[in-house]
Structures are given as C-alpha cells and as structure tokens.
Amino acid sequence: MISTGELKKGATIELDGKLYSILDYAHIKMGRGSAQVRIKFRDVRSGAIIEQTFQAGTKFQRARVERREMQYLYNDGEFFYFMNTETFEQIPVAADKVGDAAKYLKENDTCELVLYGDEVIGVELPITVELLVTDTEPGFKGDTATGGTKPATLETGLVVQVPLFVEPGTKIRVNTETGQYIERVQ
C-alpha cells in the first residue's frame, strides 16, 4: 500500500481495477477541515488523463511493475521491436505504449521496458540521449546581442531549439523529460 504522503511522479498504482501512472500531485490545506491531495493520473492502458481529489492519508494499492533493460531494434510503423540483451528474445511493443519515447529512440539504444506481469505498459528512457542534427538553418555571427536559438531537426525527427553555432552533422545531448538541448557532444 502507498499513502498520499509517499506519492511520487511516475509511480504506478491500482485504483478501481485499473492501472494508473501518477503524472502530478499537489497537497492542498484548507483553512478549516482536513488536508486534501489532488492527483493527476494517466490510465496506463487507455492513455486517458484523469484528475481526482482524495483526503490526505488515503492509501492506494501499489501496482507491482517490473523494469527490464532492453535494446531498441527497429519499428515497422505499427510496432517497436525491443530485444532482451540477456536472452536475445524480441518483444514487439505497440506504438501507443511507446508514446513520446519514440521521439528519442534510435536503433541499438538501451532503455527500460516497464512490465505489469507480461504486459508492456511503457518505455522509460535515460534522462539524456545523444542525437545527431540532420537539418538546421545556418546561424550567422552577430544575429543577436545575447545567446539566440534556432530550430534543429534531429535524426529521430524531433525538433529542438539549439544555439546558433550548432550545424548539421553535430551530435547534441537532449533531455528526454523536457525535450530541451543540453550541450554539444564532441
């Protein structure tokens, strides 16, 4: 069991027979009465986002999820294929289960699949990934008085704002949680 005081983003709980992933939560203290907790959930199977309020101290059933390190192989438009690096077993994962992680995945990258029993319920990426810039406009010296940015298309199709000195063919590090440029990689 998990109490409202032990909540954290990304935790998976069971509520009314469904699996929910916690996206955000806020403790609310009213002038009179007991404290409440407003939780924003994502239904793991359907993808629907729900927001509910509970009394402080409410307990939830923690879902027993397993994280397995896998290597991303390829996608065929409908499924993304991952390989267990120990058993070499290939697992197809539906595109809707991969979600936004698809923007950061390139062939042979390592990530973690989140499993509930034998069912894949999500993909967890490392905090940062290194991607190659495939297309961006040229940046001209003196364009701005302060550090300016421009859009750049990366090898996975993701578009991020990068500094003016970044050119096509440059490898950059991107934060997978915010989708922002961090630094140029040598």
From TrEMBL:
Pathway where it operates: Protein biosynthesis; polypeptide chain elongation
GO cellular component assignments: cytosol
InterPro entries xrefs: Elong-fact-P_C, NA-bd_OB-fold, Rib_uL2_dom2, Transl_elong_fac_P/YeiP, Transl_elong_KOW-like, Transl_elong_P/YeiP_cen, Transl_elong_P/YeiP_CS, Transl_elongation_fac_P
Subcellular location, record wording: Cytoplasm
Domain annotation Elongation factor P C-terminal: ranges: 129-184
Gene3D superfamilies per UniProt: 2.30.30.30, Nucleic acid-binding proteins
Residues annotated as domain Translation elongation factor P/YeiP central: 67-121
SMART domains per UniProt: EFP, Elong-fact-P_C
Principal subcellular localization: cytoplasm
Keyword terms: Cytoplasm, Elongation factor, Protein biosynthesis
Gene Ontology BP terms: peptide biosynthetic process
One GO MF term: translation elongation factor activity
Superkingdom assignment: Bacteria
One Pfam assignment: Elong-fact-P_C
Family indicated by similarity: Belongs to the elongation factor P family.
Function: Involved in peptide bond synthesis. Stimulates efficient translation and peptide-bond synthesis on native or reconstituted 70S ribosomes in vitro. Probably functions indirectly by altering the affinity of the ribosome for aminoacyl-tRNA, thus increasing their reactivity as acceptors for peptidyl transferase.
Name of this protein: Elongation factor P
